[in-house]
Design brief:
Layout (H helix, E strand, L loop, with lengths): L5 H39 L5 E2 L2 E2 H31 L10 H5 L3 H22 L1 H6 L7
Antiparallel strand pairs: 1-2
Length: about 140
């Protein structure tokens, strides 16, 4: 009785693809919400109050960014777990783990997804620079 592993491989690939798409969506939504929030605050005069030495807009953008960071960390952890599971040898005892990543498509794709989500995480951290360095609405 022959069994095939194709459904398991398809499931692994769809999981990894799902992590990539979710990472892109989280980054895209964060970027657009925070960017449009500044635009709306300037146009309609929202969030002009000062709390804890920060403008209301800075505080809301900071809270949104801080809530997005753990979600992105989770989306980095999931493909990392898949990447470690796909390794042929035991990961702690394998000194050539990166070379083994190239041997099969599944660990390579999981590694790429992990790295792309890490890049999105860094972009989200980098968003703190415009939040605190720039003044929206041309205020002086």
């Amino acid at each position: 009785m022959a069994t095939t592993t194709t459904p398991r491989i398809e499931h692994d690939q769809s999981q990894t693809r799902r992590y990539l798409i979710l990472g892109i969506i989280v980054w895209f939504v964060h970027l657009n919400v925070v960017y449009s929030l500044a635009s709306l605050a300037c146009t309609w005069g929202w969030l002009s109050l000062t709390i804890v030495g920060m403008s209301g807009l800075q505080l809301v953008e900071t809270i949104i960014t801080l809530l997005t960071l753990p979600l992105m960390l989770f989306l980095i952890y999931l493909p990392w777990r898949e990447w470690r599971r796909f390794q042929s040898a035991e990961p702690p005892s394998n000194p050539h783990i990166l070379e083994d990543t190239e041997k099969d498509r599944r660990p390579l794709v999981a590694c790429i997804v992990m790295l792309l989500n890490s890049l999105f995480f860094l972009f989200i951290i980098g968003w703190f620079v415009p939040i605190f360095a720039l003044r929206p609405c041309g205020q002086s």
